[in-house]
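Researcher: Let's do a round of design. I'm pasting the structure tokens now; please hold your answer until I've finished.
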């Protein structure tokens, strides 16, 4: 196996699966944490009804329309931060949501951020938990993951096991798209909950 980063400028559905096993690392004043990615989800910009960029550019999603390799961060339901790796050609606005991972370095710091009773399995299990374990917030919006900054995307350190894919989680549009990928048998992969498709509004009778 070639242990290199995927070409992030390729179409999002081609990049997503190849991010599995890659490492996302953060470095802050209180220390560093490294997570091995075990679950991801692809979103195809203006071609994807479930994407934040479906209706075009906005202040919120501007980084998605830029070059690949930058971080798109958003606040989900006013509760937690979610992080995405921008992919594809500039202007396409595609991105891969990082859904889960295994903490392989900095477990003590990750547990301090997540709670002392958090099990190793759950430290970065789920999009909000992953960002909390890594210490990522809205301040990291737009950072370049391919440089030498405090947030870096790095190649896998060992061969990646079997990869599976299926429907995305928690979206109301395009809920049946099989654009979620995960490493088979990894305990850090989040539980699947079938999304509820958005109902069409009925016309108002006169």
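Researcher: That's everything. Go ahead.
Model: Designed sequence:
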């Amino acid at each position: 196996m070639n242990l290199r980063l995927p070409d992030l400028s390729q179409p999002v559905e081609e990049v997503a699966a190849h991010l599995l096993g890659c490492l996302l690392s953060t470095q802050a004043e209180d220390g560093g944490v490294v997570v091995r990615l075990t679950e991801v989800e692809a979103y195809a910009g203006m071609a994807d009804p479930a994407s934040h960029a479906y209706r075009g550019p906005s202040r919120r999603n501007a980084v998605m329309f830029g070059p690949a390799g930058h971080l798109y961060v958003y606040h989900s339901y006013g509760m937690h931060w979610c992080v995405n790796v921008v992919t594809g050609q500039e202007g396409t606005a595609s991105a891969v949501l990082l859904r889960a991972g295994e903490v392989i370095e900095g477990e003590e710091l990750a547990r301090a951020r997540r709670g002392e009773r958090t099990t190793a399995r759950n430290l970065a299990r789920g999009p909000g938990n992953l960002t909390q374990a890594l210490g990522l917030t809205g301040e990291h919006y737009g950072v370049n993951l391919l440089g030498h900054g405090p947030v870096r995307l790095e190649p896998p350190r060992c061969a990646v096991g079997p990869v599976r894919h299926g429907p995305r989680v928690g979206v109301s549009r395009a809920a049946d798209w099989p654009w979620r990928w995960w490493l088979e048998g990894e305990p850090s992969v989040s539980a699947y909950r079938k999304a509820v498709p958005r109902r069409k509004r009925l016309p108002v009778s006169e």
